[in-house]
Design goal:
The chain has 4 helices and 3 strands; from the N terminus they run H-H-H-E-E-H-E. With 155 residues, it is of the alpha+beta class. A 3-stranded mixed sheet has the order 1-2-3, covered by helices on one side.
Length: 155
């Protein structure tokens, strides 16, 4: 805006007045129209922003796609962790109920595949009175249930 004002002033000073100021009047008219156009040019962006806001499509300047992607990645990681914990707890409860073991006498350690979507190996850790259960039955049950490798250990 300041540069446009300086250009308009420079044009007014350097243009001749002409006979009875005829050229000066036209020069002032053109520089005035030029300045008005420069002043109202930002209104076009403001009007489109208001239309977007009215349609619910407003994006705030401080919001960036990078931050949104980071939040999505953090959310996905939290969901994956919660899912893995839930899976492990449910596997432990299933073994306790199936083989009639006391709560706390069995733990499961799950090794996940590279994508993290499926278990690759399950280690069933027995303690207390659960050490007397048949490890081959537990191993075959887990292998048939999950279609992955299973190991049974005694603590």
């Amino acid at each position: 805006m300041l540069a446009a004002s300086l250009v308009a002033t420079l044009v007014s000073l350097l243009s001749p007045d002409g006979e009875r100021g005829g050229v000066a009047k036209h020069t002032r008219l053109l520089t005035s129209l030029f300045l008005v156009c420069v002043m109202i040019a930002p209104l076009r962006g403001a009007i489109s922003a208001l239309q977007n806001w009215q349609n619910g499509e407003i994006t705030l300047p401080w919001q960036e796609d990078v931050e949104e992607n980071e939040y999505q990645e953090d959310m996905q990681e939290a969901l994956d962790t919660a899912s893995r914990d839930y899976f492990t707890k449910m596997m432990t409860q299933t073994l306790e109920q199936k083989f009639l073991m006391d709560v706390g006498d069995v733990r499961c350690a799950v090794h996940w595949s590279d994508g993290g979507s499926s278990p690759e190996k399950v280690t069933v850790i027995l303690s207390g009175s659960a050490i007397w259960k048949d490890p081959k039955e537990i191993q075959s049950f887990v292998t048939s249930l999950l279609s992955c490798e299973c190991a049974v250990a005694i603590e």
